[in-house]
Amino acid sequence: MRVGVPKEVVAGERRVALVPETIGRLGEGVEVVVEPGAGERAGFADAAYTDAGATLGDPWASDVVVKVASPSAAETARLHEGQVVVAFLAPLVDRDGIERLTAAGAHGLALESIPRITRAQPMDALSSQATVAGYKAALLAADRLPRFLPMLMTAAGTIPPAKVLVLGAGVAGLQAIATARRLGGVVSAFDVRPAVREQVESLGATFLDVGVQGEETEGGYARELTAEQQQAQQAGLQERIPGFDAVITTAAIPGRPAPKLVTAAAVRAMRAGSVIVDVAAETGGNCELTQPGEEIDVGGVTIVGITNLPSTMPTHASQLLSRNMASILGLLVRDGELVLDWDDEIVAGACVTRKAVAA
Ligand code: NAD
Asked: What is the reported pTM?
């Protein structure tokens, strides 16, 4: 079986889907073809790939193409029928991309659609990348604040610790909490899923009760709040937000625009010098004033809307993603041959452009 690793073409994307370290773990009979320069922006030189046993060449002729972003129109034109593509295919939002892959006759395995069952945990690329995003968000908050995060007792007097609020405490939010705590901030957090309170408290943060409780789906995700619940949440948060120096927002509902948690009025009520880091910027933002891809100043409050945070730490983001990919590839290869086992709930669940299979 041949696995192809293209160079990512989306502007600003520095990650790569497979790193040299992983190549030796793919087992007998798996050949890897890497596009020259594919790992360069993540810190992995071509020579590191060839040292690990890969060859440099055209990755698009491979049985399985592993990518970060969904293939562009030009990339899809290079695919042939029956090939497998594993990537963040955004099946719930990128209709054009999915239609293109379907027309090409490719089996698209979406990283987002891998069922969140115990056996699939090593393949969970949403979680590995959210870990990077949450960590980076806490660092950005610390960096943009014009003050210390930890309490400091110095000869010049005592500095109180910064107060940090994390909204949405899934994988990214919990990592942001842990990182902000390690930096010495006093952290509070809120999530609509009731199970989260204990996880927040186990990290040494305080659960902020805004009087709204949502529901959890079978897959462990939050259900979208009703319009009334949303209003109650915004009002509850608006009252509390001015008491914080930094707000890190990570709330998301799969396939839906990011819920608006921080209103324009709440931003205006914050002290000058406060910071909002909106990890949900890519799906519209949790703050009404976030401008995706931009960092803005609203009356002295910095709102960071940088998108694709995992790409800003491309070495480890790629390394984790690569390990996820290796686990997925392990499901697709038997005795060195590509085998698509549609009875496997992970393969079947991940496949979003499954070509009709003859009975
Ligand atoms: P996500 O990125 O979809 O959402 C981030 C968080 O936003 C979630 O915790 C969600 O509850 C929260 N949220 C949604 N609407 C909100 C609102 N209006 N206000 C406040 N918060 C809101 O979720 P995720 O981080 O990918 O994971 C969600 C859950 O899935 C977590 O409990 C995680 O532990 C679990 N999970 C399970 C597995 C597994 O079993 N294999 C793997 C990964 C994650």
From this structure: 0.95
